[in-house]
Amino acid sequence: MILVTGGAGFIGANFVLDWLATSDEPVINLDALTYAGNRETLAPLEGDARHLFVHGDICDRALVERLFAEHKPRAVVHFAAESHVDRSIDGPGAFVRTNVDGTFTLLEAARAHWSALPAGERELFRFLHVSTDEVYGSLGPNDPAFTETKTYEPNSPYSASKAASDHLVRAWHHTYGLPVLTTNCSNNYGHYQFPEKLIPLMIVNALAGKPLPIYGDGQNVRDWLYVGDHCSAIREVLARGRLGETYNVGGWNEMANLEIVHTLCALLDELRPSAAGSYARLVTYVKDRPGHDRRYAIDARKIERELGWRPAETFQSGIRKTVQWYLDNPGWIANVQSGAYRDWVARNYAGREVQP
After folding, report:
1. How many degrees, rounded to 5, is the angle at CA 174 between CA 170 and CA 175?
2. What is the residue extent of each domain of the chain?
3. Which Enzyme Commission number(s) are listed (predicted)?
4. Are 110 and 127 in contact (CB under 8 A)?
5. What percent of the chain has pLDDT above 70?
């Protein structure tokens, strides 16, 4: 049995669904069901005895310890995190609480559990911490991509909180011997992603005939990773990764935000044409967000060299699958767009003067 934290969120839920589609090993799924956690994503697992969902907070030490005591998981896969940069600027306290305090709570509970295991089980136990490339800071246009030895230079409350959690995980390995693994991934996209992130926000807004807000000049570059590929990478690291090591996981797809949005518009023009004309007419430039990193790029050669992993999807194949999924699942989109979500979107983009 494995314990997955944040397994009702975007990447965590995709991982749980993928895990149980390829394995009979049960999953304890611990999620606080904040705005981005969605039980509806896990609907295919209703009635599946291999999936135990627990509504709870990773900062709740008593609950976490009880789950370890009752279920004795042989591994933890730690996704649970506040993860949106804009929200971290608006309210950084929640990011410190979940990403730093929550990771500390998990590490301490895992250490106590692991320390009490018989020798053979202790050797098999793993704590896999899922992190982000944003901890490395921003790259210039000609800088080499992030490797696992790149100096940490976080620039937002979100990335700073994730950097802190990475350091805690490293320290618990080097100080206490806890058998940890860390993955730092690039920007994920795919089905079940909450529509505050770039790709689903653009799809949802375009279908509603709303503006497609582009920060600054739209030339901020990200490396895009299909969520199914990310899940397969985590499985490989969990199974065969070297203890104490970090593995960068990327899609080898560096693209500027504006190019992403125009790609989405072209796909929607093909798959769901609008009587009003191309969706590109909705592109709107807005004031940039504070501290907006210019470029991220992942060097994923280590995970390929050591574990034989490479992404299966190209950006062209993955983004087409993603757009089609959102077109096919309007009910899921409507259900996650609660009043609280709409209020946040309105607040985040209000007052950002349109750029020429």
Report:
1. 110
2. 2-186+226-251+295-312
3. 4.2.1.46
4. yes
5. 95
What is the pLDDT averaged over residues 234-256?
A: 97
C-beta separation of 174 from 243 below 8 A = no
| Residue found under tokens 């992130």 | 197
Length of the chain: 356
- The sign of the dihedral angle between the CA atoms of 254, 255, 257, 262 is negative
Higher pLDDT: 35 or 344? It is 35
Q: How far apart are CA 16 and CA 343, in angstroms?
A: 30
Give the rounded percent of residues in the chain with a pLDDT score beyond 90: 85
For residue 183, is pLDDT > 70? yes
> How far apart are alpha carbons 103 and 96 in whole angstroms?
10
Task: Show Cβ contacts of residue 236 under 8 Å, excluding neighbours closer than 6 positions.
Answer: 303, 307, 308, 309
Query: CB–CB of 6/12 below 8 Å?
Result: yes
Active site residues: 133-134, 158
Q: Which residues pair with 284 in a beta bridge?
A: 213
Q: How confident is the model at residue 255 (pLDDT cuts 50, 70, 90)?
A: very high
Cβ atoms of 320 and 268 closer than 8 Å: no
Residue the block writes with tokens 């839920």: 13
Please state the three-class secondary structure of the chain as a single string. Answer: CEEEECCCCHHHHHHHHHHHHHCCCCEEEEECCCCCCCHHHHHHHCCCCCEEEEECCCCCHHHHHHHHHHHCCCEEEECCCCCCHHHHHHCCHHHHHHHHHHHHHHHHHHHHHHHCCCHHHHHHCEEEEEEEHHHHCCCCCCCCCECCCCCCCCCCHHHHHHHHHHHHHHHHHHHHCCCEEEEEECEEECCCCCCCCHHHHHHHHHHCCCCEEEECCCCCEEEEEEHHHHHHHHHHHHHHCCCCCEEEECCCCEEEHHHHHHHHHHHHHHHCCCCCCCHHHHEEEECCCCCCCCECCECCHHHHHHHCCCCCCCHHHHHHHHHHHHHHCHHHHHHHCCHHHHHHHHHHHCCCCECC
Whether pLDDT at 339 is above 60:
no
Tokens linked to 181: 């693994």
What's the pLDDT score for residue 344? 44
